[in-house]
Design goal:
The protein is an alpha+beta fold. The chain contains 6 helices and 8 strands.
Length: about 150
């Protein structure tokens, strides 16, 4: 049923649940259950309320963590996505711990993470024009290395 719905949505404009049920000659309840699963798996989107369509992959410019883990598994030597995600989480946790402790993290040729402190400053509320104080805070900066710069710009 999933494949039928995906094929149908790929060929047409966004459709309502009832329209999909009529075309496939099944009950609306069945279609609703499958649509919920497909939406959870991020295989379809709902651009307008109650309408569904297949997401155009070439338009998607953001890779979320779930997609990254899948790509990471394929690129690395991991047997499962779970193993890849555990390794990715360990990597991200270690970066966070090192930055929290005040250390810089440098990957030669790829880039450098470091924490910088922004001082307290004056600003304006755009709605009222009233002057406000913006409190000091720490920011994480990333500066690209030469290899990554060349890879992106070539």
């Amino acid at each position: 049923m999933k494949e039928k719905i995906l094929k149908l949505l790929a060929k047409s404009e966004p459709l309502k649940t009832g329209d999909i049920a009529k075309i496939l000659k099944v009950e609306t309840k069945e279609v609703t259950k499958v649509l919920k699963v497909l939406k959870k798996e991020e295989k379809i989107i709902s651009p307008k309320r109650c309408f569904y369509t297949v997401e155009k992959m070439e338009e998607k410019l953001i890779v979320n963590k779930k997609e990254f883990v899948s790509l990471y598994k394929e690129k690395g030597t991991f047997k499962t996505k779970v193993e890849a995600e555990v390794n990715l989480n360990a990597f991200m946790d270690l970066i966070g711990e090192l930055l929290t402790s005040g250390k810089e993290v440098n990957f030669t040729g790829w880039g450098k993470f470091k924490v910088v402190e922004r001082e307290e400053r004056k600003g304006r509320n755009p709605q009222t024009g009233e002057e406000i104080t913006i409190s000091a805070k720490k920011l994480i900066k990333f500066k690209t290395g030469k290899k990554l710069d060349e890879q992106v710009n070539d």
